[in-house]
Amino acid sequence: MKMLNDICLPVLKLALPLMLIQICQASLGVMNTMVAGRYHYIDLAGIGLGSNIWTPVFILFTGILYVLVPKISAMQQGTSQEIGVLIQQGKKVACLLSIFGFLLIHLLAFLSPSIIENPQVALITQQYLHFVAFAVPGLVYMTLFRFISEGHCTLKPIMLTYAILLLCDVLLCIVLVNGIGFVPEMGGAGTGLATAISAYIACFCMYKFVAKAVPELKMNSTSVSFSESLALLKQGLPIGITLVLQILALATLAFFASQLGAKTIAAHQIAINIAMLLIMIPIAISSATTIRISYFSAIDQQQGKMATGFAVAVITLIYVSLTSGLLFGFSAQITALFSQDAEVLHIANALMVFVAIFLIFDALQTVASGVLRGLQQFMQPLFVILFCYWFIIIPMSYFMGVKGWLLTEANVNVIWMVLTGGICLAAILLTLQSYRYLTRHSQRDLLTDPS
User: Fold this and answer.
1) Euclidean distance between CA atoms 339 and 345, whole angstroms
2) Mean pLDDT over residues 212-226, rounded?
3) What is the C-alpha to C-alpha distance for residues 239 and 67, in angstroms, rounded to an integer?
């Protein structure tokens, strides 16, 4: 028991700041959804689909820039000049991503009326995306500064910035959506403008906070070639692709739900937002797990790796048991925060059962992926997510949930049933893989132990 406490406490200590950051980040989308949903369910559906269009693009960019974290961490014993060169490369990558993202999201905005059946929803989505496109450069550079700070193990600037971002975004959303005083009423599209304004406020704050802790951020004398920056981009690309596969799958499911009516889209979006907010804690635990497993691997301590794997499994199960219980017990009160439409709330309440079960298995597969990354096994999570989402969940959701095959009628509940079943399979496969690799390392250490 003492050893378990010794393992749990460092993981929790490392995970806690990451939890706060993840919750703030996830809360941005949730608050936008709540403000738009209380305005009108059509606006909720419009920004929900718009979010599903642009979020995968930004997640891809986030994954690409994340490569800076381990690189900067590995350079802590190096010179300021070396770190400065890497930061300059990151700035060039951020510039390229900003331009590409700005143009791509504008293009997706123009295309949205052709892929969304409901004309009212399509118009709101289009307006929302045009505003969000202007937010992309601010969000990309804010993410760059965040990962530079994480690489230096300095999390306070990130927590302060995300708190400011959340406050600004919520206040601006309320004002721009509903219209106050001389500010005109913009409806759901106003959340996009709120995102754009708050992104640049947060970017400025993040730069100021991080620059105080990381002097190399202000170094501009170092010049780097385009080829060096491109090499950094290529190194981060696999991370981005791995992250975006899951997000794209969820976005695809949202478009499947959109074919079942505007109120179904709104209810589905409520369920997705609640699920994504609650999964932020397991994501933080997974990141802390990767760091701890990597540490024990570096010092070749097998007992520490096994104890860490067991400890995070216990922590995760306690968390999902509590949160799933809350979803079962207070689903009506939770969904009422997002909408006032009785039919939307009826559909959303029915989905809460699936969200609660989905959360259990998604948390387990997230933490199991963290164990595998700590053991330097990067491809297993990618293959499992690719198989479960794109070969099982997506096809079955379309044919059963949208087309109504093998059922009396199409139903969004079926989409969530398939999603939950697919994630259950992913959790089983990844948990077995993580256990297999942990025990394989243990057996290898026993065979090579000279005693």
Assistant:
1) 7
2) 76
3) 8
